[in-house]
Amino acid sequence: RGTPDISLSAAVDGAVVLYFSFDPTRVGYHLVGGTSEASPEFAGVVAMADQVAGHDLGNIDNRIYELAHFRNLAGEVDVTQGNNTFGPFTNSDGTTHTVVGFNAGPGYDLASGNGTVDASRFVPALAFAPNF
């Protein structure tokens, strides 16, 4: 799937610090960014909503889009500035490239989806939202 539903921080500047011990050659603290940062963050938010609901919420896709109609109450925070352009970056062969993305704007957009979440409001909203 190539379209965003929800966005969370994925910048290495401000990355998550993880302690690895599963690989004996890499034991220690490491910075993690990108999808490796944002996906577990959102999984943790959804896990908290599962706990609050007292059961597995299952597929939450429809709930995310229904809750967007109640943004302020439901903890979905619209991202209205910025873009998801990547670059410029230089490959090992010396060529420089930029992958042009999309601009953020009011409502759903291809840069940030429905925006990001304020977990303190999003968790209970997601936990108690009807199964649409």
Question: Can you put this structure into words, describing what you see?
Answer:
By secondary structure, this protein is of the alpha+beta class. It has four helices and six strands, in the order ββαααββββα. It is 30% helix and 17% strand. The strands form three sheets. Strands 1-2 form a two-stranded antiparallel ribbon. Helix 1 packs across helix 4. The relative contact order is 0.21.
Layout of helices and strands, plus pairs?
Layout: E1 16-20, E2 28-32, H1 35-53, H2 61-67, H3 71-74, E3 76-77, E4 86-90, E5 96-99, E6 116-117, H4 119-128
Antiparallel strand pairs: 1-2, 3-6, 4-5
Can you give the helix content as a percent range? 25-40%
Number of helices: 4
Spatial arrangement of strands, main beta sheet: 1-2
State the major sheet: 2 strands, antiparallel
What is the structural class? alpha+beta
Overall form: flat
In percent terms, what proportion of residues is strand?
A: 15-25%
SSE order? EEHHHEEEEH
Q: Rg from C-alpha positions?
A: 17 Å
First-residue to last-residue Cα separation: 21 Å
Q: Please tally the β strands and state the result.
A: 6
Model regions low in confidence, pLDDT < 50 over at least 5 residues: none
Query: Taking all residues together, what is the mean pLDDT?
Result: 92
